[in-house]
TrEMBL record:
Keywords: Signal. The lineage of its organism: Bacteria, Pseudomonadati, Pseudomonadota, Gammaproteobacteria, Alteromonadales. Residues 1-23 form the signal peptide. It comes from Pseudoalteromonas sp. SD03. Belongs to the bacterial solute-binding protein 3 family. This is Substrate-binding periplasmic protein. It comes from the Bacteria.
């Protein structure tokens, strides 16, 4: 009987704690005109005041970089208007705060004709100090920090920089007619980030409980006014299961961009997710770390190699992507060397100069092959794949490089119209497969089942197979078909 009373009191106490007002709620916020004004007005602040009418909100205005840093030091309960990748360890609600505008690279038409992101390769780029747009631009570039928008516009118009990266709404109207742009990151949801503790989770639940009421009453539309259409709240279905997929593949992060995703992963996910419309899939930039950071219980990693350690911790999908083993590539015709059995012999007889980055690490069998190669035939090469292929195309420093076929298929024809030829390194393993990997949760188990069922149908299709073959570069069709069967179909 005492135990029953104790449990009842504990339940009542927990309910009161979760649903009662907190003494104070500390909110980190950056000044965005009309959204978060220092006089505590603006769309987002008015929304917070309505959702948390019973709480005492304390707003602390500072730069975006500072508030995200202070949040990680546990100084705030809430941070307003963040992208998930900027605070990966926060607790996030189901409802978002707004849809941010695309991030664009602005340039002067008379100076450049940028049509795609790869055109930014080796250019001088600028953005406001404090923003970390660098993580979205995979091509080598120089960075010139700007202190203000006015300073940035002066640098751009005077051709001191090649492009300025920022959100569209930050570019003054008087300059827009003088500029063109290429999209860097498409429009994406931004959130209230909550502290990952009981207080933060209670505040997040209240946000999720209140937002549907504000939407149905018309209050959200009244608050956001002309920007309501941009929020996408009208078509937002909170009943769909949200799954967050993290990746370092910039093409995946731009899957819904006006700039079509070029990578194999982006093309495969486009096919798969078109068949899974009961889910809200959100791609988020993975942290630049080997630590597998999660974004809540509905989080998955878009593409991982299966290992026994991972299989013991995560849900692992059937293999959905296929990457052929690295080959030796050269713009020079290698057909005459087909009879050669190994890399060392090829390099010594062909006179090829092998480009190799000192920071690049291959599998053990490739490293063993490289040990046998005459060191005088190995030349320094860039670490970045685009820069390395760009240098290979010039045939100046080196004329051969070891590359993954999928990378060659993705980037080579952005660089040159010239043909490229390959040599089979005759490795022990001819391919690698990628898997979706998810945190263990009830929702993720259902998602994984649906993902696998969809995949089982798609990998049988000619469209799926042809897509992967496109990224196999110049591999003979007969050889590819055997690998495809072994890697994907035999799993069925």
């Amino acid at each position: 009987m005492r135990l029953v009373k104790y449990l009842l009191l504990l339940f009542v106490f927990s309910y009161v704690f979760i649903n009662s007002a907190f003494a104070t709620v500390k909110v980190g916020v950056t000044h965005w005109v009309d959204y978060t004004n220092p006089d505590e007005t603006g769309v987002y602040i008015e929304l917070l005041k309505e959702v948390y009418a019973d709480e005492q909100l304390e707003f602390d205005f500072s730069t975006y970089k500072r508030i995200t840093n202070l949040f990680e030091q546990k100084q705030y309960d809430i941070v307003v208007g963040v992208a998930k990748e900027d605070i990966p360890l926060a607790y996030y609600p189901n409802w978002y705060l707004d849809y941010d505008y695309p991030i664009n690279a602005y340039f002067v038409d008379s100076a450049h004709k940028f049509n795609k992101l790869s055109d930014l390769n080796n250019k001088v780029l600028s953005w406001l100090d404090g923003y970390n747009f660098d993580k979205f631009i995979e091509y080598p570039h120089d960075y010139y920090p700007a202190s203000t928008i006015e300073n940035a516009m002066a640098l751009l118009l005077n051709k001191r920089i090649d492009a300025f990266v920022d959100f569209d709404y930050n570019i003054p109207k008087e300059y827009k007619s003088k500029l063109n742009y290429v999209e860097v990151v498409p429009a994406r949801p931004i959130y209230l980030a909550f502290s990952n503790n009981e207080k933060g989770k209670a505040l997040a639940r209240k946000f999720d409980q209140t937002m549907p009421k504000l939407k149905s009453s018309g209050r959200l539309q009244a608050l956001y006014k002309l920007d309501y259409e941009n929020t996408r709240f009208a078509e937002f279905d909170a009943n769909k299961t949200k799954i967050v997929l993290s990746s370092n593949d910039e093409s995946l992060l731009r899957l819904n961009s006006v700039t079509e995703g070029k990578s194999l992963d982006a093309q495969l996910y486009k096919l798969i997710l078109a068949e899974m419309r009961d889910y809200r899939i959100e791609f988020v930039k993975a942290p630049d770390t080997n630590v597998e950071v999660q974004f809540g219980i509905s989080h998955c990693f878009a593409n991982k190699i299966n290992t026994p350690e991972r299989a013991s911790r995560y849900l692992i999908s059937k293999p959905f992507s296929l990457y052929l083993a690295p080959r030796l590539y050269s713009p020079n015709n290698l057909a005459q060397f087909k009879h050669i059995k190994n890399l060392d012999e090829l390099v010594s007889q062909s006179g090829l100069r092998l480009g190799l980055s000192k920071f690049r690490i291959f599998s053990e069998d490739i490293m063993s092959l490289l040990e046998e190669v005459d060191k005088t035939k190995i030349k320094p090469a860039p670490t970045n794949i685009f820069s390395r292929l760009q240098q290979l195309a010039k045939l100046q420093e080196f004329d051969a490089s070891i590359e993954y076929p999928s990378d060659v298929a993705t980037y080579w024809h952005d660089i040159t119209d010239a043909d490229i030829h390959s040599f089979d390194l005759k490795l022990k393993t001819s391919f690698t497969v990628g898997h979706l990997m998810c945190e263990r949760s009830e929702e993720n188990i259902k998602f994984m089942q649906n993902f696998n069922n969809t995949l089982s149908k798609l990998i049988q299709s000619d469209e799926y197979k042809a897509l992967i073959y496109h990224f196999a570069a110049d591999l003979p069709a007969e050889q590819f078909n055997k690998i495809y069967q072994q890697a994907l179909l035999d799993e069925e």
